[in-house]
Amino acid sequence: MKVLAPDGSTQFMLQGGERIVSRKETRTLIKKAKKADKNKGGNYDRYCKALGKYMFKILEGQDNREPEYVSVPE
Question: How wide is the angle at C-alpha 21 spanned by C-alphas 16 and 22, nearest 5°?
Answer without folding.
Answer: 135
